[in-house]
Amino acid sequence: MTDLSIIVPLYNEAESLPELCAWTDRVMQENGFSYEMILVDDGSTDASWETVRKLAADNPCLHGIRFRRNYGKSAALYCGFAKAAGEVVVTMDADLQDSPEEIPEMLRMIREEGWDIVSGWKQHRKDNALTKNLPSKLYNATARRITGIKLHDMNCGLKAYRSEVVKDIEVYGEMHRYIPYLAKNAGYTRITEKRVHHQKRKYGKSKFGMNRFVNGFLDLLSLWFLSTFGGKPMHFFGYSGIFMFLVGFVMTVWIIVEKLVNQARGLKFRAVTDQPLFYLALLAVVLGVMLFLAGFIGEMIARSSEKRNDYNIKSEF
Predict the structure, then answer these.
(1) 220 and 248: one domain?
(2) 62, 165, 221, 241: which one has the fewest Cβ atoms less than 10 Å from its Cβ?
(3) Structural domain count, the chain
(4) pTM
(5) Pick the residue with more confidence: 231 or 100?
(6) What is the end-to-end Cα distance of the chain in Å, rounded?
């Protein structure tokens, strides 16, 4: 089996590819690794694909995948994972900010220390502190809190995986940021990190804007909900619906009883329908019923899913 499959998603990185491939090949040769490097062109509009073809003609270890249009990094990784045949799969960016020099130690950590995933930690980032560093720290702190995975840099492009990990997970949408969380949910819990050298971008400019942090947070909530309640939606919507219904019901009863007591005592009272709180109580009751029904429908969908009994069996005899 090939020692390493190195997957490199790229979008308009024609200038950096020759240097990246030469650098990676030099590291592999120095360490005596057998490897394949899969360059996934995510619909580039520059000369990236022509560069990939030219480089592959001189190096049989290079392979290329080209999309007809830009689908995003998750799609590129998904196709790269499907094609990978190495014992260990490494992902890295094409912009020369990730160093191939880190790969041998990551491979050793997986082989000798038994880790499922080794994630890079760009402790000293060479990015703008205001637009990249500070938002990244907040984002990673939130991700650690929700996922329970103690990684300082969840979104680092430089990662190494045991091959079965990437074969057992499905990366879609923009979930490439949370591959360690996807792996954890699939039962691969031996996840660690390694401090890696981060270099300043040499060519071009970043393809990601500030909106990635908002999108990343929303994706994280989606993953958390699916992993926690995906197979039992009634536990979320049902409990929420019952709580809302009871709150609304108790408020309604309290308003009516208060009105009747004051009326019986000859005290001043307001009609039930003249009180804004009554309509809030009705709204809570209606929302409670709707949430409960949403959970019931979700439960029926989950029970009819073809994957409802898909379990990741580690071993058997």
Answers:
(1) no
(2) 221
(3) 2
(4) 0.74
(5) 100
(6) 25
